[in-house]
Amino acid sequence: DAGVIQSPRHEVTEMGQEVTLRCKPISGHDYLFWYRQTMMRGLELLIYFNNNVPIDDSGMPEDRFSAKMPNASFSTLKIQPSEPRDSAVYFCASSGLAGGGYNANTGELFFGEGSRLTVL
Amino acid sequence: DQQVKQNSPSLSVQEGRISILNCDYTNSMFDYFLWYKKYPAEGPTFLISISSIKDKNEDGRFTVFLNKSAKHLSLHIVPSQPGDSAVYFCAASMDSNYQLIWGAGTKLIIKP
């Protein structure tokens, strides 16, 4: 079974440009998470979805960031306009549990390989 | 405010010896703790977890110990192998909250 698939793996862009990161979760998983990893702040949860609906976007740093999940097999994280401080590795993760609820007692997230973003 | 702390950015251990990675937390409401392992250029992968109703969980070479009174958990790897060289993240959650709170990670280096 394919894991969580993210694209692009690497993105180098100039300040002010729009960046779109993509994620395909594991089939059957009903939770999807976007994380950002930086040296300064470690792993930060940006937003997560349950059954394609955004549940908590309190981690999204600014209005320049937006995320969508139009269907169960696809999500995007968009940054417009991008800034050098957005440079980081962005991870998508998915999780799925019986009964449709997130059982924190398993807590197992399946991560993609990440998208490394560099904004010049 | 860091609720989950991994105070050692890195740790170097001889192959075959025991590796002990530490994690401290401040929120007594956390009731589940997890360890993830991350290789360069890959996403974190789940390693082992423990519920707050237990004080030990073992899976092969990996054992996690939980000391609730001290708000401290540790991951023991015995014996350490070169493939264990990675960054290890500690994470915690509350059953009522879907978020995992992550530590900053500890880079483990296993020397041959």
Order of helices and strands of chain B: EEEEEEEEEEE
* Quaternary structure annotation: heterodimer
Coarse morphology of chain B: globular
Count all strands of chain B and give the number.
Answer: 11
Secondary-structure content class of chain A:
mainly beta
Q: Which percent band covers the strand fraction of chain A? A: over 45%
| Percent in strands of chain B | over 45%
Helix/strand/pairing category of chain B: mainly beta
What integer is the average pLDDT of chain B?
A: 92
Spatial separation of the terminal alpha carbons of chain A? 36 Å
State the low-pLDDT regions of chain A, or none: 98-105
> What is the tally of helical segments of chain B?
0
Q: Which two chains form the greatest contact, residue counts included?
A: A-B, 23 and 25 residues
Radius of gyration of chain A: 14 Å
Order of helices and strands of chain A: EEEEEEEEEEE
So how many helices of chain A?
0
The first-to-last residue Cα distance of chain B is 38 Å
Biggest sheet architecture of chain B: 6 strands, mixed
Ranges of chain B where pLDDT stays below 50 over 5 or more residues in a row are none
Largest sheet of chain A: 7 strands, mixed
Helicity range of the residues of chain A?
A: under 10%
